[in-house]
Amino acid sequence: MPVLSLIANPADPELDAALAAAVVAKTGGELNWLNHGVACEIVEPTAPDALDLARDLLAAKAVDANLVPSTGRRKQLLVADMDSTMIEQECIDELAAALDLKPQVAEITDRAMRGELDFAQALDTRVALLKGLERKIIEEIRREAITLTPGGRALVQTMKAYGAYTSLVSGGFTLFADYFAKRIGFDEAVANVLEFEGDRLTGTVTKPIVDKDTKRERLVALAAERGLDLAQTMAVGDGANDLDMIGVAGFGVALHAKPAVAAAAAIRIDHGDLTALLYLQGYAEDDFVR
After folding, report:
1. In a domain, 237, yes or no
2. CB of 195 within 8 A of CB of 206?
3. Among all residues, which ones are annotated catalytic?
4. CATH of the domain at 9
5. What is the three-class DSSP state of 168?
6. What is the pLDDT of residue 283?
7. Do the domain assignments include residue 13?
8. Mean pLDDT by 10 residues, the chain (290 residues)
9. Residues 83, 243: contact at Cβ < 8 Å?
10. For residues 100 and 98, what is the distance between their CA atoms, to the nearest angstrom?
11. For the segment 91-117, what is each residue's pLDDT rounded down to a tens digit?
12. Can you give the pLDDT at residue 1?
């Protein structure tokens, strides 16, 4: 039994009762609000092309439409990317800014996230440019330049409250992943280790690099350790190195993703914040743990 999920950005909601009713008129099904003005679901839409109809109708609105099964919606494992997913920046680009290299490094980052470059080689190239950067500058950037993506703490805390395990698996760096995983509430963090000589970066990263294979393998391993079927898992990310884990998860979500990633993912959130992942699972706003 499918459910058609409609989710707006809570910061600027465009999903009113009239718009929801218009979608129901096209798709059939029973309307159920999860958060009035922000998220609703249409249970058992009768139109065979309900998702396409909804997306066509919502094309001019900042509202995401996705079709999900009604059974097994509440997942017991979350594996999330960090950069441009759980946080709003790419950490390596912000580190490069301290050396006046941000445009050069950001271009490489963007191409790697679009899948145009080998991730490991691109990471080595960018890290080499950071050689000599002081640890205290990195900590200052972490403190002052990085912001959490809205809804992330509610996503993690709510899923944990309902029994899920949460893992932050990043192609970024432990100096950021460990810190922000703790702030958000993740159970664990996995990321690359920047190497230092004294208090300055050597321009190298410990091997093996955390890449797309690591992300997929960690999701599969955690599911096995916890006796979960992959259908009971959720993965979220925005870049090409997230596609493998998105592809094997029960709910694989492309969040504000690069076009190729959004096109390949079964679920895409282009407008909503991270609470959208809770609405996809059928949580109502009253269920959220903040």
Report:
1. no
2. yes
3. 81, 83
4. 3.30.70
5. strand
6. 98
7. yes
8. 96 96 97 98 97 96 97 97 97 95 92 88 94 97 98 98 98 98 98 98 97 97 98 97 97 95 96 98 97
9. no
10. 6
11. 999 999 999 999 999 999 899 888 898
12. 81
91-to-97, 147, 157, 195 alpha-carbon distances in Å: 10, 10, 24, 16
Total domain count, the chain: 1
Please answer whether residues 266 and 274 qualify as being in contact, where contact means their C-beta atoms are separated by less than 8 angstroms. no
SS3 136: helix
Q: What is the H or E stretch that residue 175 is in?
A: helix 174-184
What's the pLDDT at 143?
97
Is 193 part of a structural domain of the chain?
A: no
Matching residue, tokens 């017991």: 76
| E strand spans, the chain | 2-8, 30-35, 39-43, 63-69, 77-80, 165-173, 188-192, 194-197, 200-205, 233-237, 251-255, 267-269
Contact 57, 26 (CB under 8 A): yes
The parent domain of residue 22 ranges over: 1-71
Whether residue 145 is contained in a domain is answered as no
